[in-house]
Design brief:
Layout: E1 2-6, E2 9-11, E3 19-20, E4 25-26, E5 33-35, H1 37-52, E6 58-64, H2 70-79, E7 83-87, H3 94-105, E8 112-116, H4 127-135, E9 138-149, E10 152-159, E11 162-169, E12 172-176, H5 188-194, E13 199-202, H6 233-242
Parallel strand pairs: 1-6, 1-8, 6-7, 7-13, 8-12, 9-12
Antiparallel strand pairs: 2-5, 3-4, 9-10, 10-11
Helix pairs in contact: 2-5, 3-4
């Protein structure tokens, strides 16, 4: 069984965020970039576990981006991926990302395609489902457990008030969340081996964007806390009616 893991590069959550060009372009200067945690901790690690168990024969990685994403994909190789592919395209449009991945994957014979449930930058959570549609594969989203037996995959996912278990055949696309696997860190042997593992650059397919960014906006600054005397309930009730906001 061949597994493809979709890897995206995202800003570290400790990075200072700013925008340029009249708030229409994200400013990447000085930003620390990391593997999207949902891709790394769950999708990639579960794929590696399946290979270690003898269920999978190869774990390939794919990312969409320019040369500056290569350090991130090398880290994914250091964790244990066998081979990586960088589709030479730069777009924040989820359809473009999905179309590029699907165009690459359709001729590679993958049995299982894994991705994180969402990226921590745009939080769209839509790429996995679009990849499945474009590849004409089944899709199950937000899975918290993956077991492969023969030609079938059993997954669990949280639903309101309980847990749902689904069984589907291969090939299939799954988006992963907490519970699928435990996070790992690359060891020195993996880091050294990653330097020589194949990282191939793939020409983009030329998919057109279906959306564009009108502008970005920073969250409103936090306001101070108003202290109300315990014996002044009338003022508290008035403030709850006139100033308090439900978030």
């Amino acid at each position: 069984m061949k597994i493809l893991v979709c890897i995206s590069q995202v800003p570290d959550t400790t990075s200072k965020i700013s925008f340029t060009d009249n708030n229409t372009v994200f400013n990447g200067q000085g930003v620390t970039w990391i593997i999207n945690p949902y891709d790394e901790w769950y999708g990639l690690v579960r794929a590696l576990e399946l290979k270690e168990a003898g269920t999978a024969t190869a774990v390939h990685l794919v990312t969409v981006g320019k040369a500056d994403v290569e350090p991130v994909i090398r880290k994914a190789l250091a964790l244990g991926g066998d081979e990586a592919f960088r589709i030479d395209s730069d777009s924040n449009d989820p359809y473009v990302v999905a179309a590029q991945i699907a165009d690459f994957a359709k001729t590679q014979g993958y049995d299982l395609v894994l991705c994180g449930k969402e990226s921590i930058d745009y939080n769209n959570g839509s790429v996995g489902a679009m990849v499945a549609e474009l590849l004409d594969m089944d899709f199950v989203g937000f899975v918290s457990k993956i077991d492969v037996t023969g030609g079938a995959v059993e997954v669990s996912r949280e639903i309101d008030g309980g847990e749902e278990t689904d069984t589907c055949g291969l090939p299939v696309v799954l988006s992963c969340q907490k519970g699928v696997a435990e996070a790992r860190i690359p060891n020195m042997r993996g880091i050294m081996a990653a330097r020589t593992k194949p990282l191939k650059v793939v020409a983009p397919s030329g998919a057109a964007s279906l959306s564009n960014v009108a502008s970005y906006e920073m969250p409103a600054a936090k306001t101070g806390v108003k202290m109300i005397s315990a014996d002044n309930l009338d003022e508290l009730v008035n403030l709850l009616h006139t100033e308090a906001k439900v978030i």
